[in-house]
Design a protein that fits this description.
Length: 209
């Protein structure tokens, strides 16, 4: 009996390792082929090196929150977006930071997501709630375009000033601040869409058959 993706995701979220293996086995060949067909020669070569695509898919599924999908199309669209974003990042910039972001505090007080890097938790339920929100933010960052993710991480995790961010990105301080604000707005919308199970809204116009 071939179990559907919705069921396998639920089983994986409950800790069933075999369900993760089944998800990867079912969808990885399609994802690899789709990414290879969409990307240019340089990135296509990178995607075919060292099972890069499989590594990204498995790593993402290991730390994502309990997101819901309606069908295979939504599941594949989410993973394709994340894989392609990682492939497009300059010099594996974001990939190298993923584990750090998973360990570090969430976005600071500047975010409208209500996550505070300096907040103190006084009960197990508060700890669980904070960790869940952090997980949704991390998934949202994975879905954003690379230039949005870069400016958010430079500001919130690397703690750079806007003049320093501007110098890094080749823009002035004011432009860096505006880019960060726009990126944060987009992240907020993406996270709320993901949390309510609206993957189509989170992924925008991306269509995967």
């Amino acid at each position: 009996m071939k179990l559907d993706t919705h069921y396998l995701l639920d089983r994986w979220h409950e800790g069933d390792r075999a369900s993760l293996d089944a998800l990867v086995e079912r969808h990885l060949p399609w994802i690899r082929n789709h990414v290879r067909n969409r990307l240019g020669p340089a990135l296509r070569g990178k995607a075919e090196t060292g099972d890069y695509v499989q590594d990204v898919v498995v790593e993402v599924l290991h730390y994502t929150p309990r997101f819901r999908v309606e069908n295979d199309r939504q599941f594949r669209a989410l993973l394709v977006r994340i894989v392609e974003n990682n492939l497009r990042d300059r010099h594996d910039w974001f990939t190298a930071r993923r584990r750090d972001i998973a360990r570090d505090p969430p976005l600071g007080n500047s975010t409208v997501l209500g996550l505070s890097a300096g907040s103190r938790c006084h009960s197990p339920s508060m700890v669980v709630d904070r960790e869940e929100r952090e997980a949704w933010v991390r998934l949202g960052i994975e879905v954003l375009e690379p230039h949005d993710r870069e400016v958010i991480v430079l500001r919130e995790w690397d703690r750079l000033s806007f003049p320093a961010i501007g110098e890094r990105l080749g823009i002035d301080r004011s432009a860096a601040h505006k880019r960060f604000s726009r990126a944060l707005d987009r992240l907020t919308k993406v996270v709320w869409s993901l949390r309510r199970g609206d993957l189509d809204a989170a992924l925008g116009t991306m269509v995967v058959s």
